[in-house]
Amino acid sequence: MSLTLPRAADLVLDWRAPPGWWAIPLRLIVGYGFMAHGVAKLMHGPEHFVAITQALGVPFAPFMAWLTIAVELVGGLAVLAGVAIPLASIPMAAVLLVAIFTVHLPNGFSSIKLQSVTATGAHFGQPGYETDLLYLAGLAALVLGGPGPLALDRWLRRGAPGG
């Protein structure tokens, strides 16, 4: 009689959700994040964001500022709803790449740069491009893996003739 010990892999419970469910938390954070940035630009006054794009030397700054806000709001909503993600991800990726190369690249990789902690709280330096890369990775995962369940795309396909 031999004693067989379980493999380490067998000791781990298989808690994974059915295929595709991984996309839901990814859609929630990517979609909400984009929308939150668009809303923040509107709430602070779009003219402030126009001034920022002008200071960065972005061509057609007023148009590009408003286009960025629209991409953040409409693209974020599309990702949240799970509709047309491959199409929406193109301008969303463009916004992220412009942000990386015009704002964040000189600040290095890290998004969190703790400079000091005082009685008033923590003080941070300028963020790097880490978060932009995470958003790009999230968009890529959704494009490659699909929107998952509870996506408007799936509902629209089921309702379409032959879907």
If you average the pLDDT, what whole number results?
91
| N to C succession of SSEs | HHHHHEEHH
Q: Order of strands across the biggest sheet?
A: 1-2
Largest sheet: 2 strands, antiparallel
The overall strand count is 2
- The tally of helices reads 7
What is the structure about, briefly put?
Helix content is 61%, strand content 6%. The protein has 163 residues and is mostly helical.
Describe what you observe in this structure.
- The chain is mainly alpha-helical and 163 residues long.
- The protein contains seven helices and two strands.
- The chain has a two-stranded antiparallel sheet with strand order 1-2.
- The longest helix has 21 residues, at 23-43.
- The mean pLDDT is 91.
List the helices and strands and how they pair.
Blueprint (H helix, E strand, L loop, with lengths): L7 H4 L11 H21 L2 H10 L5 H21 L3 H20 L9 E5 L2 E4 L5 H16 L6 H8 L4
Antiparallel strand pairs: 1-2
Helix pairs in contact: 2-4, 2-6, 3-4, 4-5, 5-6
Features:
mainly alpha; 7 helices; 2 strands; 61% helix; flat
